């Protein structure tokens, strides 16, 4: 951790991470600890709200969709308990409507997955009108499309017909896409 980063974080280094993807949550917690944050993790809305009530952190990263509900409930609780908390909402289901809702609930930024620890740190520590720099290696449009199709496919319990219906595409077209390797 650099002295500059330490100064940006400030004296209260507490960070709440709420995500139901356990491997991602553990990786992000380790990465954020290396950057100087004192992390606490939660894998559900209920657990996140409980921590927000008992030990409201200075920073928070909250997944939008959790198994037991909407991460915006955690954002709302954090805003009530600690209005100065800097909150970033993460989601694998990026859409303008959910980004607007997250900001209305009090998030300072909204990042689409996959986001790395540098993206999260930059969003948490961004001040004022300074826009974060664009990512060094953004995903290609083909990769973004493939990721979206994979997420919907998993949401539909790997049911090709249901996924094709939700994506408004022909079932055989979807099968061809799913049979290919992921684009770079």
TrEMBL record:
Q: Which residues carry this modification: 4-aspartylphosphate?
A: 63
Q: Where are the transmembrane segments?
A: none
A Pfam family that this protein carries is: Response_reg
Domain Response regulatory residue range list: 14-128
Sorted alphabetically, the keyword list is: DNA-binding, Phosphoprotein, Transcription, Transcription regulation, Two-component regulatory system
Please indicate which superkingdom the organism of origin belongs to: Bacteria
| Entry keyword annotation includes Transmembrane helix | no
Record PANTHER family: PROTEIN PILG (PTHR44591:SF14), STRESS RESPONSE REGULATOR PROTEIN 1 (PTHR44591)
- Which protein is depicted? ActR/PrrA/RegA family redox response regulator transcription factor
What species is given as this protein's source?
Pseudogemmobacter lacusdianii
């Amino acid at each position: 951790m650099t002295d500059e980063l330490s100064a940006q974080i400030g004296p209260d280094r507490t960070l709440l991470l709420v995500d139901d993807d356990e491997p991602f949550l553990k990786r992000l917690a380790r990465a954020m600890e290396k950057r100087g944050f004192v992390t606490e993790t939660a894998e559900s809305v209920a657990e996140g709200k409980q921590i927000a009530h008992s030990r409201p952190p200075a920073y928070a990263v909250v997944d939008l969709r959790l198994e037991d509900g909407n991460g915006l409930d955690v954002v709302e609780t954090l805003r009530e308990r600690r209005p100065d908390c800097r909150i970033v909402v993460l989601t694998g289901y990026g859409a303008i409507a959910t980004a607007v809702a997250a900001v209305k609930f009090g998030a300072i930024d909204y990042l689409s997955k996959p986001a790395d620890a540098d993206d999260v740190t930059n969003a948490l520590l961004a001040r004022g009108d300074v826009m974060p720099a664009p990512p060094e290696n953004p995903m290609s449009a083909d990769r973004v499309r493939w990721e979206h199709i994979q997420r919907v496919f998993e949401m539909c319990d790997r049911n090709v017909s249901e996924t094709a219906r939700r994506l408004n595409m022909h079932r055989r077209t979807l099968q061809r896409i799913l049979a290919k390797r992921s684009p770079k």
